Amino acid sequence: MRTLLEEEHETMTRFKKLLVLMMFAAVLAAGFLLGCSKDPGTRVANIEPETTLSFSPDEGSEANYRVRMNWFGWDADGEIVFFETAWDKPDTIESWSEWIDLDGRAVVSTDSIFMLEAADEFDDVNAYALHSFAVRAVDNEGARDRSPESLVFTAVTVLPETEITRGPALVTGPMVTFEWTARDRDGVIVAYDYRLFAKPPDGEWVQVAPDPDVAESITVGPDVTSVLFGPLAGLHRFEVWATDDAGAADQTPAVSQFTVNPELAGPKLYIYTNVFGTHTFRGPVWPDRYNIPEPIFAGERLQFVWNATADDYGGEVVGYRHAYDDTSTWPAWSIFDRRRRVVPTIGRHSLYVSALDNANVMTRARIYFDVVEASLDDYILVVDDYNRWEDSNPDRWGSDEERNDFYNRILSGYVRDRSEWEPGDHIEDGGPTPPDVDALRGASTVIWYCDGTATIRDLFDPFQPSYNALAGYLRVGGNIILCGSAVLTQVTGDPYPLSIGVSDTTTAGIFVRDYLHIGWADYSGSGANQSSPWEYGYCMHGAVPTPAGEALGFEPVYVDTGDCAVEPGKWWMYCWTHPNYYHCGTPVEKLLNFQGTGLEIYATDSFLNDNYEGEPSVVLYLSGDNRGNACYIGFMLYYCQEDHVKAMIDKVMALFGEEKVQ
């Protein structure tokens, strides 16, 4: 199939052949007439050539700014030597010929593609410009066509479209980077222009780049598509627009308005650790609290990974570097310097990390810690995490002092002394705090009970990253007995039922899965509607050993209900005459060990709620070397019969290697 250009070329070829024959015939006729002249000495005047546009836009029409013109000429008594062309007749010259004489260009070709300006008028999509064109032939004797071929038409181009591809957030730091791009659907981009304005408080917009006395904008080539400003402060507006090869500029520049906060200087640097949580830094000076060393246990294997971003102010992080303890020399900046592993020795250590952006602004960070040795051999630590701050009725629920006495009695007779941690006696930032590294370092076993909202949740708060002393204590070989009311949901912060999988990377999830060896848990709650026994929450009357528990020598543990006819026991609700609570038990957790790593040693002996009947309620993990053992008890020991609890705890403590006085 022939193209339009091929058909046009063939037509022109036939036309030119015909023209040649006509010119040859004219020459013969002229010679014949001259030969017949009565006055052979008289010279006949030269005939002027003629010119025709064979391909061009229609007169008064619209055409693309890349316009093609074809023309030809003929001379009756000679030959065409060249053509003269001219564009855009000046308003002060009436004659087309004079116009060509002033602005013409001699060419020998008979066609050309012209690139025109199209930037005089605009609408929402296109740009326009009116153009005039003329062409005349010149023959071998210098004669010119006195009636040149000409036309007037409008060149049209599609406006370019400009887009900011990278810029700052609405509120950003003092160094601001912009990147942009543009497209032109019928041409190419040949330049960009941009400018920056600032608006002072209660003032008007003022151009700050470039200096308005010098230029209205900064013009750059098509390969320059980014700019960095700074340091800045306050409200600013950035504008950028493209210009295409028809000279048409984007009439709707890409605009970004933003507020610069000098305090956001530098990249935002995140340091992720396996024991300290995630910490965020910004700017060249880290907060004062990082100048106070955080105690950790000796033997910890520390892993640090860091990453920084400057996206919120349109910057780019170009390198990292770090130093461990020694800051006298620093390595070269590297985008790959993002990790450090170390087993620190006893004493104080610092990890310093820096991140650099493309404006040469730096963020510096510090992780400062004091490594202390854990003897794990000095005392048995009892953590009284009972929420006495909400104790509104001690006569019914038991007071804090009564709980203290209860645990002192069941832990009597051991070789190691007892030590007690009362969170309410250790107030920081206005609230009670859990035991710290110094309190845990000498404990051979920790018995931690949480009968209510407890401070143990503070150890796993993801919004307050710090060293988790309890997790560290277990990592270096400590033993724990953890019990109470719905403790797992306080640890994780999630509602029941809880499911902990292999992919859980949260501090709380790792603690429950890898240290307590629990993979799933639910809680009977406190529901008291006996008309729905399958939902009844106060259901546990006791716990009986499973086959695994029997093999280890454990015995049943039952709730202390007392004799309702004589005197109720500590679990007074059993004797309450309220119809919804009559002979009710205590709430209890239903537990499943994680993939067989723990022993389910007790099962619930429930009343009314079959969903908890025979379900595991105690999980025991034995490491085999009297270090790093854990026992999680899913009910409140205080409300059980004391001799049962003592026998149970004595068995667990014996398995943990705790010795009794002979």
Give a description of the structure:
- The protein is an alpha+beta fold.
- It is built from 10 helices and 42 strands.
- The strands form 10 sheets. A 9-stranded mixed sheet has the order 28-27-31-32-42-41-40-35-36. Strands 2, 4, 5, 7, 8 and 9 form a 6-stranded mixed sheet that branches. Strands 11, 13, 14, 15, 17 and 18 form a 6-stranded mixed sheet that branches.
- Strand 7 and strand 8 form a beta hairpin.
- The longest helix is centred in the first third of the chain and has 32 residues.
- The chain is elongated and about 155 Å long.
Let me know the largest β-sheet: 9 strands, mixed
| Average pLDDT over all residues | 90
Query: How would you describe the shape?
Result: elongated
Strand content: 35-45%
Please describe the topology of this protein:
Blueprint: H1 4-35, E1 50-55, E2 62-64, E3 66-74, E4 80-87, H2 96-103, E5 105-107, E6 111-115, E7 121-122, E8 126-139, E9 149-158, E10 161-166, E11 171-172, E12 176-183, E13 189-199, E14 206-209, E15 218-220, E16 226-229, E17 234-244, E18 254-260, E19 268-273, E20 278-282, E21 294-297, E22 302-309, E23 317-324, E24 339-342, E25 347-357, E26 362-372, E27 379-384, H3 394-397, H4 400-410, E28 417-421, E29 427-428, E30 431-432, H5 437-440, E31 443-450, H6 469-475, E32 479-484, H7 487-492, E33 498-499, H8 507-515, E34 518-523, E35 540-545, H9 547-551, E36 557-558, E37 562-563, E38 567-568, E39 589-593, E40 599-606, E41 616-621, E42 630-633, H10 642-655
Parallel strand pairs: 2-9, 11-18, 21-26, 27-28, 27-31, 31-32, 32-42
Antiparallel strand pairs: 1-3, 3-6, 4-5, 4-8, 7-8, 8-9, 10-12, 12-16, 13-14, 13-15, 13-17, 17-18, 19-20, 19-22, 22-24, 23-25, 25-26, 29-30, 33-34, 34-39, 35-36, 35-40, 37-38, 40-41, 41-42
